[in-house]
């Protein structure tokens, strides 16, 4: 398949700029692969499509407010420091804007008495910085206080304090992401309890989503595209639950494309997973034989993105494009703060 196969025209007014007030009141498109059918519900109807014994797998990564404002030494120029990932204690890979103003040897002040030294460049055009005179946990607390939510580029507004709550799942636990696992944004704690009450077992994995999730695919031949690596963890408890569910013929339902990538990364011999942690650059696009995932909850994704390619690999390109055109016709809200679909 070619890059152009995954293109579609989306009216700009359908790109959700703000979250809706009640998370689980977003719309839910139900896409049935077997029946080749599309139905329209709300996310609070999700339990109707789950069965006792199903496994619901969540990504418990936590988004940190990665956008910091800094002052450069000597010139007092304002620069943006975007925290990409922590390499070691107080050593971070960052993006800076404007990049031409920030060089090795510069000191950047992010708060009174808190500076970082620019100590290296990265191959992707970023910088490596080391924070001084602050303990690691104190730095985390400072970032949470003064940082801004790293909203995606298609949300055309400045972040607000509310985004620190809304651009985060209610079950987020492990800090490390600069983009939210958006399929999970629709869950409330009450809805998760309703799901459990139906006999569905809920387990968690971690995949820290990076900025690469928004990086456009620029090659027409998809086999030449390379994904950015992202850190993941699958616990022994989660791996055992998945393997037992598979043995009993129960469904494994992934909440989001990040869960799919993780489970497909750790699948071994046939239809089992092993507990593991590490880095994955797995790129899933059609045709692909899924080993672990039986149903998928996901948002509506950008044209030509690796995310829509994964969804098309799961449901078939023709059905996915039919669903997207139906969503546009019925004025669904798209992308991170938008509506959801479940593919069964």
Structure description:
This protein has helices spanning 136-146, 163-166, 189-197, 236-247, 257-265, 306-315, 317-329; strands at 27-32, 37-42, 55-59, 61-63, 67-72, 78-88, 91-97, 107-111, 114-121, 127-131, 174-177, 201-207, 230-234, 252-255, 267-268, 272-273, 276-280, 295-299, 340-343. The protein has 344 residues and is α+β, with helices and mostly antiparallel strands. It has 2 domains: 3-63 and 164-343, QueA-like (3-Layer(aba) Sandwich); 67-146, Beta Barrel (Thrombin, subunit H), CATH 2.40.10.240. A 9-stranded mixed sheet has the order 2-1-19-18-14-3-12-13-17. Strands 5-6-7-10-9-8 form a 6-stranded antiparallel beta barrel. β9 (114-121) and β10 form a beta hairpin. α6 packs across α7 (317-329).
Portion in helices: 10-25%
Q: Strand percentage, roughly?
A: 25-35%
CATH uppermost class of the largest domain = Alpha Beta
Structural class: alpha+beta
Largest beta sheet: strand ordering = 2-1-19-18-14-3-12-13-17
Provide mean pLDDT, rounded: 96
Low-confidence runs of at least 5 consecutive residues: none
The coarse silhouette is globular
Number of H/I helices: 7
How many strands appear in the DSSP assignment? Answer: 19
The quaternary organization reads as single chain
- Stated plainly, the CATH topology of the largest domain is called QueA-like
Our Rg estimate from Cα atoms comes to 21 Å
CATH hierarchy: architecture of the largest domain: 3-Layer(aba) Sandwich
Amino-to-carboxy terminus distance = 23 Å
Order of helices and strands: EEEEEEEEEEHHEHEEHEHEEEEHHE
């Amino acid at each position: 398949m070619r890059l152009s196969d995954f293109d579609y025209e989306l009216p700009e007014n359908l790109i959700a700029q703000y979250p809706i007030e009640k998370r689980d009141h977003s719309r839910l498109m139900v896409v049935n692969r077997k029946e080749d059918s599309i139905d329209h519900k709300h996310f609070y109807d999700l339990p109707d499509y789950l069965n006792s014994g199903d496994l619901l797998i969540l990504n418990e990564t936590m988004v940190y407010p990665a956008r910091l404002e800094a002052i450069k030494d000597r010139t007092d120029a304002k620069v943006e420091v975007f925290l990409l990932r922590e390499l070691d204690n107080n050593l971070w890979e960052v993006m800076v804007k404007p990049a031409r103003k920030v060089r090795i040897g510069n000191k950047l002040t992010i708060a009174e008495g808190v500076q970082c030294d620019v100590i290296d460049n990265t191959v992707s055009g970023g910088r490596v910085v080391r924070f001084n005179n602050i303990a690691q946990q104190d730095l985390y607390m400072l970032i949470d206080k003064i940082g801004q939510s790293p909203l995606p580029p298609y949300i055309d507004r400045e972040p607000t304090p509310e985004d620190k709550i809304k651009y985060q799942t209610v079950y987020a636990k492990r800090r490390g992401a600069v983009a939210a696992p958006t399929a999970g944004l629709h869950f409330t704690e009450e809805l998760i309890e309703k799901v459990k009450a139906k006999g569905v077992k809920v387990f968690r994995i971690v995949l820290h989503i990076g900025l690469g999730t928004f990086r456009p695919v620029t090659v027409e031949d998809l086999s030449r595209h390379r994904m950015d690596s992202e850190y993941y963890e699958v616990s022994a408890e989660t791996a055992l639950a998945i393997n037992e569910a598979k043995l009993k013929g129960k469904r494994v339902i992934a909440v989001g494309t990040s869960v799919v990538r993780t489970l497909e990364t750790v699948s071994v011999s046939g239809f089992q997973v092993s507990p593991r942690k590490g880095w994955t650059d797995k790129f899933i696009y059609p045709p692909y034989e899924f080993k672990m995932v039986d149903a998928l909850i996901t948002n509506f994704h950008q044209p030509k993105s690796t995310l829509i390619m994964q969804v098309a690999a799961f449901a078939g390109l023709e059905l996915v494009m039919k669903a997207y055109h139906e969503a546009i016709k019925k004025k669904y809200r798209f992308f991170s703060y938008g509506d959801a679909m479940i593919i069964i």
